[in-house]
Amino acid sequence: MPTLSEIFAVHPRDGGWAGFLLAQVATGKPLLWVQDRMAILESGRVHPPGLPSQDLVHVEARDARDALWAMEEGVRCSCLAAVIGEIWGDPRALDFTATRRLAVASERSGTPCWLVRLGGTANLSGARMRWRIASAPSLANALDPRAPGAPTWDAELFRARGSPTGRWSVTREADRFHLVAEPRDRALGEVERLSA
Amino acid sequence: MPSLAIERWAKSSDLAPDAPVALTVEGPHGLLIHAVTKAAAERGARPGTRLTDARALDPALIAVPADPEGDAALVQRLAGWAGRWSPLVEVDGDGLRLDVSGVAHLFGGERELTRDVRKRFGALGLTTQTAIAPTAAAAWALARFNPSPPEGEGDSAKLSGVRGLGADRPGRTPSPYPLPQGERDLLEQLAPLHVSALRLDPDTVRTLERLGLKTIGALLNVPRLALARRFRGAEDVVDALDRMLGRKPEPLTAAPVDPPPRAALRLEEPATHPEAASQALERLVPMLVGELEQRRLGARRLSLTGYRVDGSVGVASVATAIPSREPKHLLRLLADKTAALNPEFGFDAFALIADWTENLGAAQDSLVEEPSGERELARLVDRLTVKLGPRAVRRPQRHESHLPERASGWVGAISSSPQFRGEVARVARRRGPSTSFAGPPPLQMQGRVHPQRLLDRAEAIHVIYATPEGVPRRFMWRHAVHDIARVEGPERIAPEWWRQPSSARLRDYYRVEDAEGRRYWIYREGLIGDGRGGVPNWFIHGLFG
Asked: What does the alpha-carbon distance between residue B89 and residue B86 come to, in Å, rounded to a whole number?
């Protein structure tokens, strides 16, 4: 069920959430990626060659208000694979009403919407799922023991409607877009089910 | 343009309106009078005479320097404003020329049109002399040399209209084969005019006067052959006559091959309320869409022009990513920009023009109102661009380069359209509804792993070396220390010698992971002892997801 999910980057200069998010975005349709100006300054601009798909519309918004407006316009459109919006800090424009509008629009049009909060606090929100993502030391690289291997994230789902919350260590295999939980973890495949 | 100059000056000065004032320009032998007020004219000052001569007649004459550039700028502005009557307006020296073929009926006939023109210019405080004639030259002559000018005495802003004789040939001004009836009427009007109305140079005019040929009528009685033999080259009298009578096309008037689709709305009363433009838009868009449909065009750029009473115009224009003629979409695009148009003293006319169009077939999209993905995306891009500006909404564009910041170029989502549209269409065609299509292949040059995020400018980091040539043990970026736990690299990118200066240094990129698992893309610029600078610096360029 596509809906609004909120991702908090545990540290604003940790780009790990992007890998976690992109692994769950369907390809084939264009992506709308909205960044407000502070997010670009603080943690960099989207780099299309590093993304799984080049089909992308990038919006550089002046502030959170413009970013939220652009996201809402995008979410209403069913021609997009997903709408990703990065917002820096805790702007006043980002309140419960704004997130609730995004959630409703997303559920109506069937376009998943990801609200990424960089350097923000988890205040009141209408998002159906709220994640806290941090990078974790990667898996061992089979070819070069000194090099980083498959990326790993420490993903905490701290609020979810209709599904249990929890904390997982998530790894993404090299070229595939599915996620596996660590064997020790209580719910193997929990994340696939949630993101499906 | 004597009257325009003096009227423009009178509007901005605080002298009494009946003061004898002369506007002057620099002449070869001192100041020349350029324009005079009515009071000064009564006391003997004439445009073209020397200021000293005029002062001898009336010592109280006040001299003010003229401002020809300002006058010309005003004429240019008025030309834009005159677009309310006809789409084709040309500045012709001190006057305006409008191609009004097929336009006059919109204003209730040619007589009404000239009255409207005179009234509106009069409201601006400018006197005009107007004439409508089948050829540009005849209109020019009638506007300037008509023995019974409709607006009292004195020179004034001239406005000449041009009417095509063939009423079924809109957009083409001088008909090469005028109807005999029309030509006879025209001849009757032109015959009493002085020969200088032919726009000949002064020497030719003097020669003609000496020969006793003072009016056009007299000139027409002379056999063509004799005239042609006597006046050759630059002083071609026959040519001027032919142009005036429409026997020869007037090359000055440039008629557009295909005038852009246009819808116009005139208001009875000037509207000053802020919603005026939006309300006009709601009526204009369906009119324009009707025309677009008829011509099977789609608008790429639209502009709404609001004509204000004070002779200025307000313009709101938008562009679209793919040609469109859907009223709802166009209305929505223009609505925001239109609402920002300030009526100031009031709008009294509007024109909506699609100044950039592309062919768009008449195919029906679907039975239900559900636009296809490509069109829906284009509309989204339009809306975003209108609100946020073309620089804020962009799509990636690949460049043949190994430098990461150059390889990932961006291009405005609207301007890129033709090429990008093709690409999207191709992708859409390849993509079946049931198969899971993985999108275009990622740009991976020689198996390079790119980060998901790139800093706009690579930022210098402070590093602690393990060895001068190797990887640093830790680095400091934005006051935070990162211990490097794992590293992959280097990946060497040589400078692009064909476009960078010879002092540019190579880059050795490393993928590093710090103790907390965050992955960064850092590089060392240059090598020790490469002869292109001192100790190499380290930079951070990207963040991995």
From this structure: 7
> Phi and psi for A90 in degrees, rounded to 5?
-120, 75
Query: Which range, B392-396, B419-423, B443-447, has the best average confidence (pLDDT)?
Result: B392-396
| Phi, psi dihedral angles at B278 (to 5 degrees) | -65, -40
Whether residue A13 and residue B544 make contact (CB cut-off 8 A), yes or no, is: no
Residue B2 CA to chain centroid, in angstroms? 29
Least trusted range by pLDDT, from A27-31, B16-20, B389-393, B440-444: B440-444
The stretch A51-80 carries a mean pLDDT of 91
Q: How many other C-beta atoms can be found within 10 angstroms of the C-beta atom of residue B229?
A: 10
The two structure tokens encoding residue B4: 């325009």
Q: In angstroms, what CA-CA distances link B453 with A148, B208, B214, B254, B545? A: 18, 80, 82, 53, 8
Give Cα separations from B182 to A75, B196, B251 (angstroms): 64, 23, 21
Quickly tell me which residue has 């740009």 as its tokens: B443
- CA gap A113, A81 in Å, rounded: 9
Q: How close B351 gets to chain A, by Cα (Å)? A: 29
**Nearest CA-CA distance, residue A83 and chain B, Å:** 12
3-state helix, strand, coil in chain B (%, to 5): 35, 30, 35
pLDDT tens by residue, A144-183: 888 888 888 888 889 988 888 888 888 876 555 445 555 4
The predicted model gives B487-503 an average pLDDT of 88
* Bridge partners for B513 per DSSP: B486, B519
d(CA B205, CA B223): 18
Determine the Cα–Cα distance for residues B27 and B16; give it in Å rounded to an integer: 27
SS3 at position B2:
helix
Q: Please judge whether B543 and A43 are an interchain contact, meaning their C-beta atoms are less than 8 angstroms apart.
A: yes
Q: Which residue has the tokens 């004034």?
A: B156
B16: exposed, middle or buried (Cβ count in 10 Å: 0-12, 13-18, 19+) = exposed
The H or E element containing residue A117 is strand A113-118
> Is residue B536 reached through a cis peptide bond, with omega within 30 degrees of 0 on the bond before it?
no
For every residue of B268-330, DSSP letters joined together read: EEEE-STTHHHHHHHHHHHHHHHHHHHHTEEEEEEEEEEEETTS-EEEEEEEEEEEE--HHHH
Collapsing DSSP to helix, strand or coil, A114 comes out as: strand
Tell me which chain A residue has its CA closest to the CA of residue B521. Answer: A15
Answer yes or no: are the C-beta atoms of B101 and B169 closer than 8 Å. Answer: yes
Q: With contacts defined as CB-CB under 8 Å, which chain B residues touch A70?
A: 384, 387-388
Q: Which residue has the tokens 């012709």?
A: B92
Answer whether B311 touches A (CB < 8 Å).
no
d(CA A170, CA A114): 18
| Rounded Cα–Cα distance for residues B245 and B137 (Å) | 8
ipTM of the complex: 0.88
Give pTM, 2 decimals: 0.66
Task: In whole angstroms, give the CA distance from residue B45 to residue B54.
Answer: 5
Residue B506 has pLDDT above 80, yes or no: yes
- Tokens 């042609």 map to which residue? B228
Percent of chain A with pLDDT over 90: 47
Q: Which residues of B touch A73 (CB under 8 A)?
A: 380, 383-384
